[in-house]
Amino acid sequence: MEYRHLGASGFKVPVLSFGTGTFGGKGEFFQAWGATDVAEARKLIDICLDAGVTMFDSADIYSSGASESILGEALKGRRDKTIISTKATFRFDDSDPNNVGSSRFHLIKAVDAALKRLQTDYIDLFQLHGFDAKTPVEETLSTLNDLVRAGKIRYTGVSNFSGWHLQKSLDVAERYGYPRYVANQTYYSLIGRDYEWELMPLGIDQGVGAVVWSPLGWGRLTGKIRRGQALPDQSRLHKTADMGPPVPDEYLYRVVDALDAIAEETGKTIPQIALNWLLQRPTVATVLIGARNEEQLRQNLGAVGWNLTPEQVAKLDEASKVRPVYPYWHQEGFAERNPFPV
Hints:
This protein has helices at 27-33, 38-51, 66-74, 104-118, 137-149, 163-176, 199-206, 237-240, 249-266, 270-279, 294-301, 310-319, 328-332, and strands spanning 3-5, 12-14, 16-19, 55-57, 83-88, 123-128, 153-159, 183-187, 209-213, 284-289. By secondary structure, the chain is an alpha/beta fold.
């Protein structure tokens, strides 16, 4: 398994990491993702570790904390062999009006609760799950600084931030000497390339590595969705399509057609090709793969150990290209001064 530096830090992570959103299955939304229990989680983690996948990502809101609890139980006896990544910011429950956001009150409470559920003394990578516009950035960063100094977290990152959210935070961190964010857990896929418009150039300039979530486009690039065919009965899209990023049907089919053609050339599956494409993009440190069962996990692990050719990458680039929003379409017209990130 290849390891890459996480942003501009000295910390290395495997290029594939395991997302545990399928652990627990509490609530209608997460039930559609999966309902992996502790016994099954141990099996999946065994397979990951055998393949060199040592990083496991969770969040406090995944199945109301059950994902972290199952991960912590399944990692008993091998915590020192793994990297734990988790997140907090969104409302955890309604028991307290302060159980949300990036305030000092909530972040300290959320980290302490996550440590207890994960059965560990420290979190390797802690990320803000979203931007909190109601809490001063200085309050959030000073709290994270305290948590790092206390040894409860080691590296910090963000998720679902806009470019100005992230840059403002980096500027404040530099001004006061707080730990800088080194990770951006971001939505990015062959059918979701908005990340490239602003966040990717920012990541290159500021040394923030991408931790990619939903690399198969919210479950659309599994190879089971085809033009003229009904959505498979087992697809989670039946329940979650409206909650995720919209993707026009014809655009999806165009990308799948290109994937099909490359699958014929390479003998690889559509998910493997889609994941391999991501691993060749600038700033990408690690791609989060999820799996409800052993078969899905082993298939996703087949995305590494080989590379698409430059011609195949170009074919996928062209098939998945969309016209960006302003001012990015305007900047594309002046590639001499605003070249695509490399």
